[in-house]
Amino acid sequence: MEPFTRIEQHFAASIAAKQHTLEAMGPRIVQAAEHLAERLKQGGKILVCGNGGSAADAQHFVAELVNRFEIERPGLAAIALTTDSSTLTSIANDYAFEQIFARQVRALGRPGDVLLAISTSGNSPNVLAAMDAARELGLSTIILTGRDGGWMAQQLGRDDIELRVGATATARIQEVHILIIHCLCDLVDWLLFARGSS
Questions:
Q1: What pLDDT digit, counting tens, does each position of 92-115 carry?
Q2: What CATH number does domain 3-194 carry, 3.40.50.10490, 3.40.50.720, 3.10.620.30, 3.30.470.20?
Q3: What's the predicted TM-score (pTM) here?
Q4: How many helices (H) and strands (E) does the chain have?
Q5: For residue 76, what pLDDT is reported?
């Protein structure tokens, strides 16, 4: 196979995954953005976690909220639970790697906050533990998953929201996750700051 053909196949698969996810999840993405905007408006914050590429996505999302996305506006309250190496390694060392996010959720989370949990497989044990902690504290949860949603999809509460990518390849799921994150950022900004403008 020629190198350019391989690239064409990646682009085609990415476009197909995005189109399928839009058709299946479009209204739910709007619902998630509305939920995030409402919680932020009421003084809540967003806690975000994930592993590997999903950790990078967590940090990316928080950077867009705390700093800005595409419009000038005040910073929004969000914390990536993936960034503090001293906290992460002390929890992993003293307790277990499965607790690196859950212990932070218990320390930082308050009722009215939102946990945004990211996992391409939906089966990450430490993200599942964070969801448990969020439920115990009365936080709502939004999950970004792929494939069949994994254990995370089965652990959702009545008011939680799943945004599942219609793909099985990890790379395609990650590509759509970042698009969903940008959609959430754009809609949160529009709902909180730009809706009444022309």
A1: 999 999 999 999 999 999 999 999
A2: 3.40.50.10490
A3: 0.96
A4: 7, 5
A5: 98
